[in-house]
Fold tryptophan synthase.
Amino acid sequence: MTKIPHRLYLTEDQMPKQWYNLRADMPEQPDPMLNPATLQPATEEELYPVFCKDLAHQEMDATTRYIDIPEEIQEMYKIYRPSPLIRAYNLEKALETPAKIYYKFEGNNTSGSHKLNSAIAQAYYAKKQGLTCLTTETGAGQWGTALSEACAYFGLDLTVYMVKVSYNQKPYRKAVMQTFDANVIASPSDTTNAGRQILAKDPNTGGSLGCAISEAIEKAVSTEGCRYVLGSVLNQVLLHQSIIGLESKKAMEILGEYPDVIIGCAGGGSNLGGLIAPFMQDKLTGKANPRIVAVEPASCPSLTRGKYAYDFCDTGKVTPLARMYTLGSGFMPSANHAGGLRYHGMSPILSKLYHDGYMEAVAVEQTKVFDAATTFAKYETILPAPESAHAIRAAMDEAIKCKETGEEKTILFGLTGTGYFDMTAYQAYHDGNMTDYVPTDADLQKGFDGLPKVD
Amino acid sequence: MTKIPHRLYLTEDQMPKQWYNLRADMPEQPDPMLNPATLQPATEEELYPVFCKDLAHQEMDATTRYIDIPEEIQEMYKIYRPSPLIRAYNLEKALETPAKIYYKFEGNNTSGSHKLNSAIAQAYYAKKQGLTCLTTETGAGQWGTALSEACAYFGLDLTVYMVKVSYNQKPYRKAVMQTFDANVIASPSDTTNAGRQILAKDPNTGGSLGCAISEAIEKAVSTEGCRYVLGSVLNQVLLHQSIIGLESKKAMEILGEYPDVIIGCAGGGSNLGGLIAPFMQDKLTGKANPRIVAVEPASCPSLTRGKYAYDFCDTGKVTPLARMYTLGSGFMPSANHAGGLRYHGMSPILSKLYHDGYMEAVAVEQTKVFDAATTFAKYETILPAPESAHAIRAAMDEAIKCKETGEEKTILFGLTGTGYFDMTAYQAYHDGNMTDYVPTDADLQKGFDGLPKVD
């Protein structure tokens, strides 16, 4: 019937044994992180109170091209990896496109997303250093779930500060994390000074990601053997997520394919940075010249409408400063925006590559994203996460363009996860209650006004 | 590290191209279905108003050993199959057992379970006959979701009668079905005479599976081009589900393995019958002698405490009579019983095999099932459906016995699906609010008193 199979799984022998560090091939490096007190470049040692040593080293290491994946992590990866590279035959047929559409599906694990790839690495290195506990924050809950799984596996205590409004609206996410023994606390809480101060001002607040980060960091630095971890934005996270791109590229090689265009959704950049890594390497080293497209929500358009500037990584303004595309750390996406991809900034690595013209970016509106999600579900029988559906929307638009032009492009996109815990948003879409929101220039200016004065 | 991979996926070439019809190798056939009006064996033609012709034929065909899977169905299977055969290395290590534990994982599709294997077949044959719509009922929602996907794929209208209490308690399941364009109606409804009558008596009723079946059948027989379909119990369903066992056996052959014991959860028998089919063939034909174990909830113990008798397949008493292990069609499991496996009877094929001594059965209590589910989730990073966790419980108990005896048994169990839509039950477990319920003999006697007088 079909020569190329619907799904290709690498064998265990074919799985990557090293991560790929994209910075090693970048002609210009991202600007260094700055200590917000001194405005001097942060050193590896300065990161030790926050990150365990191996991760602090990975965060700063811009020269080692390939980094061995420790065997313990490889073993854990084998429990849910390799993830399949899938040829979307049915979607192609439905769109009547001459394009070939491939997607790398990262949702076949209980966290429901690619987040587990870095959660395992971060938990492993913490354990290796003899730490006993981790803290983090979670909004939509994918990262919290992934880290809960990783901590259960390596025997680390985990405290997750979950934004109170999500904690109340998504009780199922909380129950999943509890299945993996995580201590899930609605933020703001009375377990930290930061939380108590906010509660004193406004006992009925629904909380914010910024507040949850502040609580998680306070808890980590005030607890013996504890560190704070983060699921996106950081260089180390992109390094771990390179497994997505390395597997994808290997699988496409086996099929005799190479993508003309690579598409990924972008919030903080963890999935996109991982997916594109080895293809961007080809581009940076002149071996190939695929188009690389970041897709972001029109309601949180950090690449397409943000500023390339130094900013805090958190709304609480306690982290080092990073130069990145940002809407300002005070920017909050509209409440009507479903799912993740709510981050005000973008990975410094991806920001630099975009700034230097190696990447494109598009912003898509929410209802069109859900149109794509439901079409995709019907033809490919996977219910996508709203985040992932941003990439589906852009991939479908590319394929529809190919129908018009007759081009037989090979499209690769990243399907980061499943939408089982996002049915409230799907229901709103089915009921016709979903709306679009695009911030005005004046809305954005408020965020830009809060940018720290660095230069 | 390990010679046998964590996960084995067959290639598309290795996927079964025929289903296996277990009846062809049974030394004695199950007793025939009876027309409840005449108490005479039902004929194939008598089934035509309810089932489309190909399915009616499959229902009655006890002699054709292998039945070609139509190419259209094979193509659809390739969208989510083959499912992996997974070696539970981590669970083995955690249990310190010398046993080798394998499981066949059927949850990697949006329906979250094995139900899609038969839903696709039933939708395909309906489409082939020129029908335009199907009806069904759903309780927990896995079957309704699977059939919604299949109908969206083949372009059939689908009406799902969902028990009202589930409709209200599981809005997310409804939203998933709506994503696949299903018309989901809370039952009882005012769309049928059956529903209106029940509502007239008790406007506030939460509904029952029996009532939903009655409405779905009424809707099907009163609508041009429409048929009613069912996701378990039937011979045709076991035939379609044989793909689970065929893939499992093939994968184990590739690994040079053969199970000493095969374990599956059992509600109506769709998963168990499919998983064991080719192994039971070996047993019936003297080629091998594996133990085969059905696991049922202690709160709905049709095999371990039911009667082998003629009974209606539905609580509304409109279906033909089947001889099977049954608790009586009026039996309702306790409200505290989470998840599926609530059916009063058991597949006539499995009932006959159990009656004739080819199978064992165990009943397990709910809290012990959730103990197993959470342990499994931690070590294997898959959150199991409560139904599937019954098999996990029994597999773990076997492995623990092996630790005591030192036996290096090879255990195979079926992991039918994921528990993402069962977090209410998991939360009850985490909160210590989950209880066990075992019906008394007097409770069961009430169900037996309602059995039809046939002999």
Observations:
- DSSP finds 18 helices and 15 strands in chain B.
- Chain B touches chain A through 48 residues (CB under 8 Å).
- Chain B has two domains: 77-111+238-430, 116-228.
- Residues 245 and 275 of chain B are 4 Å apart (CA to CA).
